[in-house]
Amino acid sequence: MSALSVSALVCIWVLLCFYGGVNGYGYIKYNTGSGIVEGKLNVHFVPHSHDDVGWLKTIDQYYVGSNNSIQGACVENVLDSVMVSLLKDPNRKFIFAEMASDPLSLMPVPSACPILQMITRLLLGSIGSTTSSSCLLQQWQKMKTDCRRILAYINAKMILWCRNGGWCMHDEATSHYIDMIDQTTLGHRTIKNQFNITPRAGWQIDPFGHSAVQAYLLGAELGFDSVHFARIDYQDRAKRKQDKSLEVVWRGSKTFGSSSQIFTNTFPVHYSPPNGFEFEVSDDFMPVQDNPLLYDYNVEQRVNDVINAAITQDGRINVLYSTPSLYTDAKNAENVSWPLKTDDYYPYADNTNAYWTGFFTSRPALKRYIRLLSGYYLRASIFTPQMSLLSLYAYELKHILVLELAARQLEFLAGRRSAGANTYSLGDALGIAQHHDAVTGTAKQHTTNDYEKRLARGASESEAVVSSSLSCLTNSTSKDQCATTLPTLSQVDIPVQQSYLWYGSSSGDTDPQCSGAYIFRPNGSPPTVVSRAVPLKVVRGTLVDEVHQQFDSWIYQVIRLYKDKEHAEVEFTIGPIPTDDSVGKEIITRMTANMVTDKVFYTDSNGRDFLKRVRDYREDWPLQVHQPVAGNYYPLNLGIYTVDKKSEFSVLVDRAVGGASIEDGEVELMLHRRTIFDDSRGVGEALDETVCAENRCEGLTVGEVKVEKEGGEQPHPQPWPKWAPGEHWKSREEEPAMEVLQELDDGSVLLRLAHLYEAGEDAEYSTLAKVELKQVFSGKMIKEVKEVSLSTNQDKSQMKKMTWKVEGDNGGAPRAIRGGPVNISDLVVELGPMEIRTFLLTF
């Protein structure tokens, strides 16, 4: 959202450059190069980009500035003008976050880049190029090279800073953690290769709430020192402003604790400029008039306006151009104790009746498509120490559809080709799709269509890779290598009642807030049961039994019970949702078990950790309940479960959805939505999809309802079954997981391994796991193993972490278990509980 904020903040930044008293016909330049000044109130001025990778317009329309009847925004012009301004004054700073709009990957042609041509002509000598300006006009490739040199020069002066550095500013509610890592890796490798820059700060200013996985995995484990954002619940912000706890040390992982903590800065207000400084074409603003010959010369007045907007207390101030990293360095140097944060920032509301929990489900067909292609691209393949890669794929070819094979891993096994089809375009499309207005389902319809086209084209090219690789793999594998077994578990079944209902979408009342793409606001009436008498048909087979149910003409369901599986699978078809009664509808399925859960349930964080949720409760502040339904919804990427003293009931999902436990013993999932009105959060359209992937939303895998018995002891809840993109269930023996195996452009191979169990989750499997690389890559000679950061942009041994003091921390928490260094002689990788390790291999 709010792609317009780029030029507004740039204008404020230019404003401060020329502050000073009038001296003849000029003015004294404000000294912005003095850095931090002791004894003064230091105001850090952080000009930044916010270039949406699609929202009201497509990513390309935003970049070139087309389709301006929707929104007047042009990233290309911003980049050109910013680079000119940066070169004028080395004290200036500007941070750029979204690499999918990176000037190197989307460098404009010469005719569209006159400012860069001018800079090139002026600076060729100082940068060291011997190319004439006439050659630049005639040879685009040479122009592109010189533009790179200019940008490298700017970065060498440390005035253009890459923050976050991912392919996009990903969503934190509806993105799977593997997709978050992968799009970040794509961006980090791009700027590392082009600029040799390693981002130090997370810049998640616009996502609609913030996850625990973002804090420790996409923060500390990336090597970030800090994360900065704007959107937290309005009640939470009010309390934190009062007790001065907007800035915290965030420990998002129970397993890793302080070893993966990160300094977290929440803005006191939104990320937009102060009132009166929105310099967009459509805004009513007072321009900066910096010519002393003008009667309305107002530089000093406007600078004072900025300062007054930035501070509320008296005292001497020092204003400096800054960045998130410089600000974090200054905070760390204070050497004070900070409040501790341990959970997440969900759900997020910006007003009494405005909970941003609708987007957890919005556009379920798109969410499903992204999840399917994610599995196709980088399916989290499972192997055991006894299973080589080739035997693994023989097993998968026998048991899994070809479309669910991991294209990148097949590309590696068959040999990556320098020409022809490759998997890059699918990786690019999936990276863009993680944007906080893409996978969320909160972009305009034509932009959503563009996301889907990119994904389809990427999938088509990757299919060619898969097709050319399968023959090699199948011919290299014997049937004996395909054998594997699943553990046998004792079960205690409990009855579960399932029904379909719908909440009426609010069209506003005394509070005009409507339910829409972002906001879930039911109209206050109890949910309507779709049907109380549901005819069913039972079909029995040798491999699977099916129960077919027709709840209404637009809701159909099939429950499958496989003879050799330990779970039930529910496939539903919902849509088109009828709105001929002029009522928007939020469709849920509710499952009720006879359990005493005491308001407690558990939901996943980006498909990785599970967090405890308590209905109508927030750990960080006394919650005032205004929306008892929407305010208790949480994002699901993996699933939700409830537990009591006798049993556990768990539900797994095949795409991002919203879920809750509104009553004890109940679990409900929102599966589809269709609203009549826009919710006034900028997209300007009602969420009015008429079909869901050809009127069919397939999926919803329901976890088995059972507990495990051991001897004569009382039943206890079974540990959560593990699952990853590609819909592959992991048994306990299939641990750890190979999450990525990919040959890179330089010939090295990216390998990422993950432990699947949290500390204390299971007595047997929450322990140190080992992977023998010699056995995994049998038949290949590994020459070098280099452990790197999660996004591969720095050696793991060179990563440094800041030390932070935490209020009330006595250092008594147990130390996290992590694997040791890899010895080149035996090539055994160790992984502690929940640990993810990334390596670059050379064969």
TrEMBL record:
Entries under SUPFAM superfamilies matching the protein: Families 57/38 glycoside transferase middle domain, Galactose mutarotase-like, Glycoside hydrolase/deacetylase
UniProt cross-references to InterPro entries, sorted A to Z: Gal_mutarotase_sf_dom (IPR011013), GH38_C (IPR041147), Glyco_hydro/deAcase_b/a-brl (IPR011330), Glyco_hydro_38_C (IPR011682), Glyco_hydro_38_cen (IPR015341), Glyco_hydro_38_N (IPR000602), Glyco_hydro_38_N_sf (IPR027291), Glyco_hydro_57/38_cen_sf (IPR028995)
PANTHER family xrefs: ALPHA-MANNOSIDASE
One annotated GO biological process: mannose metabolic process
A Pfam family it matches: Glyco_hydro38C2
Name by which UniProt lists this protein: alpha-mannosidase
Name of the top EC class for this enzyme: hydrolase
Signal peptide, first to last residue: 1-24
Ranges of residues in domain Glycoside hydrolase family 38 central: 354-455
EC nos: 3.2.1.24
GO MF: alpha-mannosidase activity; carbohydrate binding
Domain of life assignment: Eukaryota
Keyword Zinc: yes
Catalysed transformations (reactions): Hydrolysis of terminal, non-reducing alpha-D-mannose residues in alpha-D-mannosides
Assigned keywords, A-Z: Disulfide bond, Glycoprotein, Signal, Zinc
Cofactors demanded by this protein: Zn(2+)
